[in-house]
Amino acid sequence: MIVPLLLQVDDALETVLAEARPLPAEQVRLAAAAGRYLAEPVIATIDLPPFTNSGMDGYAVRHADTPGRLEVIGESAAGTPFSGSVGPGQAVTISTGAVLPDGADAVAPIEWIDALDGAGAIEVPRPVPHDFSIRHAGSDVEHGTEVLAAGRRIGPAQIGAAASLGLSWLRCGSLPRVAVLTTGSELRKPGERLSPGQIYDSNGPLLYAALADAGADVTFIPTAADTRDAHREAITQALDHDVVISTGGVSVGGHDLVREIERELGVHELFWRIALKPGKPLSFGVSDRSPAGERSEHAPATLLFGLPGNPVSVLVCFELFVRPALLALQGAHEPRPAFGRARLATHVDRNPERDELIRVRLTTDGRLEPLRGQNSHQLAITALAAGFARIPAGSGTLAAGDEVAYLPLGGAS
Ligand code: AMP
Ligand code: MG
Fold first, then answer.
1. Cα distance between residue 246 and residue 234, in whole Å
2. Which atom, in ligand 1's list, is nearest to the CA of 182?
3. E-assigned strands of 165-226?
4. How far apart are CA 10 and CA 355, in angstroms?
5. What is the DSSP letter of 387?
6. What is the pTM of this model?
7. Could you read off the pLDDT of 148-177 as tens digits, one per residue?
8. Ligand nearest to the CA of 375
9. Which of 183, 189, 198, 203 has most ligand 1 atoms within 8 Å of its beta carbon, as the pocket-test mutant?
């Protein structure tokens, strides 16, 4: 018997990304733009700082006059510039962020000055270097230069930078409309009573949190029981979205109906089963939404992820495939998973056929220690993980100290 080779993880990701073209951009209020992706670069329309100002509270002086006794001729406060200019032997009281008066070329910090004498003069006890404590106009960014590139994720620092340029809106990639569809006759909602054989739906809430973090406009489709009719109804509802994420029903059991019903509804499957543990049964397909019902380069297609039912597989497949797709749809510059490198704390056996994403905690010296309980149903143990270590398929064992790819999980501590 010829066993077909499983699709490699990286090839599967590229297949997904090839279908995840950026959605149209939209204007987003600055205050609501955290977590979104810039659809166009932010260009500075002013200098920052807009004017040369003081970096400290003190006295605006001519450095050539220091050390020495200087006459204080006025004040430049933040928001209220001094209108005159500083001549030889003169100084102006200045606060942090206040305009540097004409004539001055340095600021003597207030801490250097012993005391203001009664005659409105100061004694500067040591030389103040040229430009000391001065923040020049344009020293943060100059008018006309690119501050933030298109495709960048917007966080607090980027929002602050945009605000300092006076921007109140940013052009961002739209949030994908995502339908979440859990399948399984055994599922009950948290808070309900369990009858024999039933379990709580953990995939729905898990995905809700993951989607909130990745950026999505989420619709929950009521859980589909393991019947064709229930699947047909649920998937039909879900198809009218940019992305459909189903969980369960993609393995080889007699009740696994997702792929079959998707096919009936015109979904074009691009892959099923990949060389990954956990997550082997993952399916991915597209459904065309163009009026003619034909695949086209331009019409928006619905992307369908058939995630396995086991919750750890859901989390792994979300991070490796779904999040990258959502980021690409939002126009992210680098949508691929942000793996770093780290060393194993113990030896780890490799899987001969599949890359394995094992759940690890961090030792005090920053090494990766596999958690006990690596089965794909063990979500409570996974909740203790700092992240995933990627153990490449192969023979033998990786030794303690070997370096592997490491994907930290958000919210882990
Ligand atoms: P399936 O692929 O549908 O056979 O599901 C595989 C395993 O995942 C079974 O043990 C299911 O009970 C479990 N499972 C499926 N969906 C969920 C869910 N939404 N929450 C928790 N466990 C689930
Ligand atoms: Mg099932």
1. 10
2. 19
3. 169-173, 177-183, 187-188, 199-200, 217-224
4. 10
5. E
6. 0.94
7. 999 999 999 999 999 999 999 999 999 999
8. 1
9. 203
Task: Note the helical H segments in 124-202.
Answer: 156-164
* 121-124 vs 116-117, strand pairing mode: antiparallel
Q: Which helix (H) or strand (E) holds 311?
A: helix 311-317
> What pLDDT does residue 42 have?
98
Q: Is 7 left (phi over 0), alpha (psi -120 to 50) or beta?
A: beta
Determine the distance separating the centroid of ligand 2 and the alpha carbon of 184, expressed in angstroms. 4
Alpha helices by DSSP H, 25-148: none
Residue 59, judged by CB atoms within 10 A of its CB (0-12, 13-18, 19+), counts as buried
Q: How confident is the model over 2-52, as pLDDT tens digits? A: 666 899 999 999 999 999 999 999 999 999 999 999 999 999 999 999 999
- Extract the tokens encoding 364: 């005090």
Q: Is the dihedral angle over the CA atoms 240, 242, 248, 252 positive or is it negative?
A: positive
**What's the DSSP call for residue 320?**
I
Q: Which ligand is nearest to the CA of 247?
A: 1
- The Cβ of residue 393 has, within 10 Å, a number of other Cβ atoms equal to 17
Pocket of ligand 1 (CB under 6 A): 182, 184, 186-187, 199, 201-204, 247-249, 251, 253, 308-311
Cα dihedral sign for 394, 308, 315, 201? Answer: negative
For residue 186, give the ligand nearest its CA.
1
How far is the C-alpha of 186 from the C-alpha of 396, rounded, in Å?
39
Nearest atom, ligand 1, residue 223 CA: 19
Query: SS3 of 391, please?
Result: strand
Reading the block at residue 347, the tokens are 């030896």
Are the CB atoms for 172 and 28 separated by under 8 Å? yes
Q: What does the alpha-carbon distance between residue 157 and residue 80 come to, in Å, rounded to a whole number? A: 27
Instruction: Name the amino acid, one letter, at 139.
Output: S
Residue 345: how many CB atoms within 10 A of its CB?
19
The angle at the Cα of 324, spanning 318 to 327, to the nearest 5 degrees, equals: 120
Residue 261's H or E segment, with its range, is helix 258-264
Helix H or strand E encompassing 205? helix 203-214
